[in-house]
Amino acid sequence: MKVTMKKIAEEVGVSVTTVSHVVNGTKKISSEKYNQIMEIIRKHNYVPNYSAKNLRSQSTKTAGLIVPSFPDSYVTGYINSISRRAKEMGYNLLFINTDEDVDYEQETLKLLHSNMVDGIILSPSAKMEESESYSEELLDSSLPIVLISRYHEAFQHSPFVTQDDFQAGYDAAIHLLQHGHRDIGLIYAVSGISPTKNRINGYKKALEEYGVSFNENYLEKGHATVEGSRKAVKSLLEKNKEITALFVLSDLMTIGTISGLKEMNKKIPDEVALIGFGDFPSAPIMDPPVTNISLSPDTLGQTAFDLLLNKINNPGYDKTVHIPNFLITRKSCGC
Amino acid sequence: MKVTMKKIAEEVGVSVTTVSHVVNGTKKISSEKYNQIMEIIRKHNYVPNYSAKNLRSQSTKTAGLIVPSFPDSYVTGYINSISRRAKEMGYNLLFINTDEDVDYEQETLKLLHSNMVDGIILSPSAKMEESESYSEELLDSSLPIVLISRYHEAFQHSPFVTQDDFQAGYDAAIHLLQHGHRDIGLIYAVSGISPTKNRINGYKKALEEYGVSFNENYLEKGHATVEGSRKAVKSLLEKNKEITALFVLSDLMTIGTISGLKEMNKKIPDEVALIGFGDFPSAPIMDPPVTNISLSPDTLGQTAFDLLLNKINNPGYDKTVHIPNFLITRKSCGC
DNA sequence: TAACAGAGGTTAAACGTTTTACTTCATTCA
DNA sequence: TGAATGAAGTAAAACGTTTAACCTCTGTTA
Fold it and tell me: Do A135 and A191 share a domain, yes or no?
């Protein structure tokens, strides 16, 4: 049986209150009693019951982290920094991967409202952002929520931190345009979510600045896997033989795209230049080394947690942060 | 303010007990009252307080997951399947990355003893397994613990699930030996932990079967990163120019090794054959495609969770499971 | 008709803390 | 001396559930 404060108190011959004060340092206790109590605590390896603590204090020192997909190198990156930050701040982390399942996401959010967590860092599932609305109970509740990476307007009054997708799309396209490309294909996985939309908007804006008209056919959707993009790139290039450059919106898809191009015997970058998205470990030693938009998931995660802490302490808090990205130039774009 | 059962009960004019029975379906309630209660519940978006539930029921339906490093593709893989399994079984997951920090690991374990979780899936930090012992309070406590991937004899009476490291080391070495290699280097990151030890033991056993004597100098330790193994392979090959094949014990290090070999202008597989460890997305399209020992993190994670469930329901439960690995042959081993 | 069973509800204790408001006693100060 | 102050400790309520035990009807059975 677990030993409780009551048992400790009885054994020492003191009140539960006193034990509590010793454990928490909330009141001065004579060193005589203090030592007696501490001895018994150590003897029994007493550790306080968190359910009871939480119930009484109405706080759990736990944050919920809800991600839409896993493992994914980017998500993985920010989970890591969130977990580090949580640790530093004395918080625990309740981890939930919704696997893009809208119903499970809603169910989970509801569950977390049960005083299970003090706040939530949420990256909505794709369908959610695209077309669903959150139930009112979530919205008018006072549970602090911070959005990360993906936006949903239901939470327009919550803090939001994201990689700067518009800038990323813009930078990649500008770089290719500067080097003479005019027919730039774009391979993406998930439509409807803000990252995809904003990246495409950045790409469009760049085209516009160069007076190149936007061609809907140059956008190719594929499954968010190596295999998916291998198929996608073939389909895209068969339909549009004039394409000379590609911008691929994820790391796994970048790998698949290279694989597809190799199978088609397309030389990178001579026949098709390539810019990928998200740095992955093998990018520098691929054949050819891959130029890509490098993200900062670490900064993203850390910022998310700090925003959450602010939101918890100050319910009116509301801020949007854009984390900049950087183009890392290697051989695959031919520049 | 949060609405509680008490408020619901008052509003309907019924006892708290009745509300509880409606919420949990623990007793037959007349449909008249049932409907009234449900209506008010929905009106207020009532959701039960989990701290109170947990306190009363002495269970949290939450499992702790303590990993030694993150992100790491293998760890990431099993986290994913653990989280999926937890979801299926109605459990929550408290995620902790110790970052190989022994003190934090101990502190965390202690914390989780506070009725925060119903059980723990643990992969000990390296130093822990190498030289530290767990405090008694953890060992004689009744909190169910399952070890995953890394072993620690303190938990010899807990279930344990691991990839079959001995077999992996053996298979890789046998494969290279069969193809005529006699001077096989091995690059690893963390000594002292069971995976490394067992892989090396498997490698030794294979050498023995082929009557090749084991050479201590062929083992090279490096930092568990791309950069670390790039340095390691250079150092190893400079000291031992006769080496014709390499076995590398992690995916990141495989990437770094290839990078190092390229910088040294060593042709793979003609001058140095290579077998890596752990499948990574770009392995098939590297130059050359990489032969490796493919692990099954999914099976590992799922098994871990199932073992934990068994352990929770039956404290005497104790089982060790070895998940087999497979050699995936591609170009880099020259076979 | 008496005894019983079952349906539908309620009361109150219990889970293990924290914390407010009290008590008691010794000391200090004027 | 008497009042005020402070130090050390305690009693009891509160947090929001679950659940064993009990109660009160109504209808059934012998």
Answer: no
Number of domains composing chain A: 3
Could you read off the pLDDT of B86-98 as tens digits, one per residue? Answer: 999 999 999 999 9
Structural domain ending residue among the three candidates A46, A64, A80: A46
Q: Are residues B290 and B169 in the same domain?
A: yes
Q: Does residue B36 reach within 7 angstroms of strand C, measured from its CB?
A: no
Find the length of chain A. 335
Helix (H, G, I), strand (E, B) or coil at B160: strand
The pLDDT confidence band at residue B1, using thresholds 50, 70 and 90, is low
> Closest Cα partner for B264 from B244, B291, B237, B229?
B237
Q: Could you give the CA distance from residue B172 to residue B327 in angstroms, rounded to a whole number?
A: 7
Cα separation, B320 vs B148, whole angstroms:
10
Any strand D atom closer than 7 Å to A51 CB: no
Tokens of B76: 């990431």
Q: Which domain holds residue A197?
A: 165-296+326-333
Q: What is the pTM of this model?
A: 0.94
List chain D nucleotides near protein: any atom < 7 Å from a Cβ.
7-12, 14-21
pLDDT confidence of residue A64: 98
| 3-state percent helix, strand, coil for chain A, nearest multiple of 5 | 50, 15, 35
As a whole number of angstroms, the longest Cα–Cα distance in chain A is: 87
Integer-rounded Cα Rg, in Å, for chain B is 26
Task: Tell me: do A290 and A304 sit in the same domain.
Answer: no
pLDDT at residue B131 in the model: 77
Q: How many Cα atoms are found within 13 Å in the side-chain-facing hemisphere of B122?
A: 30
- CATH at B235: 3.40.50.2300
Whether A55 sits inside 8 A of B60 (CB atoms) is no
Min distance A265 CA to chain B CA atoms (Å): 13
Kindly state whether residues A185 and A284 are assigned to the same domain.
Answer: yes
Question: What are the Cα distances from residue B56, in Å, to A94, A222, B24, B50?
Answer: 21, 49, 14, 10
DSSP B281: T
Torsion of CA B300, B301, B302, B305, to 10 degrees: 120
- At B238, list the tokens: 């400079």
B178 and B119 in a single domain? The answer is no
Q: Are residues A303 and A282 in the same domain?
A: no
> How far is B272 from B185, CA to CA, in rounded Å?
10
Tokens 């896993």 found at: A70
pLDDT single digits (tens) A142-181: 899 999 999 999 999 999 999 999 999 999 999 999 999 9
> For testing the chain A interface, which of B54, B58, B251 should be mutated: the one with the most A CBs within 10 Å?
B54
Rounded to a whole number of angstroms, the distance from the CA of A217 to the nearest CA of chain B is 27
- Nearest nucleotide, C1' to the C-alpha of A49? C16
pLDDT at B72: 85
Helices (H), chain B: 5-12, 16-24, 31-44, 50-57, 73-88, 102-112, 126-131, 136-139, 165-178, 194-209, 226-239, 251-263, 297-313
The verdict on B216 and B184 lying in the same domain is yes
Q: Give, to the nearest 10 degrees, the angle between helix A297-313 and helix A73-88.
A: 50
Query: Residue B17 CA to nucleotide C4 C1', Å?
Result: 27
Q: Which of A53, A82, A116, A266 to mutate to test the interface with B (most CBs of B within 10 A)?
A: A116
Q: Are residues B159 and B303 in the same domain?
A: yes
What does the alpha-carbon distance between residue A27 and residue B39 come to, in Å, rounded to a whole number? 46
Q: Give per-residue pLDDT as tens, A67-116.
A: 999 888 899 999 999 999 999 999 999 999 999 999 999 999 999 999 99
DSSP classification of residue A319: -
CATH number of the CATH domain containing A25: 1.10.260.40
